[in-house]
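Lab channel / #folding
Pinned by the channel admin:
"Please post every new chain as: sequence first, then the structure tokens as a reply. Keep commentary short and put observations after the output so the thread stays searchable."

First post following the new format, from NK:
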Amino acid sequence: MNIKDIRAFHLKNAIEHAHRLDEESNIIIASDNIKSRIKSTFNLIFDYAKFNEIVTNNYARDFSLNGIQNKIEKSRANKNPFTHEQENLLWSDLDFGCTRMILINNYSGWRPQELINLEIKNIDLEKQTMIGGMKTDAGTNRLVPINPKIFELIKYYYEQNKEKTYLFYNPDAPDKPFTYDQYRGRFKKILTRHHLSDLSPSSPRHTFSTRAKMAHMDDTARKMIMGHVIYDVTDKHYTHLNLDWLKEELAKI
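Reply from TO:
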């Protein structure tokens, strides 16, 4: 459609019925998170169109997604971290599926998509650092030290894939990186294998943040590693921190 012909009901209908097909042509209904992102994209498209006088009204901002944002916030709050007992089950079963990946993330705090997109060129075993991230300015291309507890796990993948682009590849298709759906499916298999529930691919990120807080990691360090915005002006602009300090804080976990 020509953007001048699009109205609020078109946009709202598109969001409410948003879906895609997976690799087996099954219909996957868009999650509330995806619907929220689509709405944000429409907002920005019409902001641009209005600024350039292509349209006279931003129809994307004429409606809201009733209840979706509250559901998103509730969903985030309801994510559970791994307990130490649950994690020990994974340490005793390293060779099954993507178990090593989950353990790596328990001590790194990546978003699931950030984890599977880590590139070999951004893994420095000598300096014991990783660079990755997405979503926000604070989250993109951030430096994350490698916790000593997971160094050998990362080295395991590095040695396997050092001639390739990514750190992690789908064992069923060794030349193709993981998609989120594939990673999520393998994550669920691990939960089933160990009779675990109430955990999701985001749980390692919650695990990292929770344990960092309990270990009294400096809050600025925790936010830097997780890619969260640092609002404190003093910490953001006037405090200069080095890698050794960040490693010391991470090692508290």
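NK: The mean pLDDT is 90.
TO: also worth noting, Residues 66 and 94 are 43 Å apart (CA to CA).
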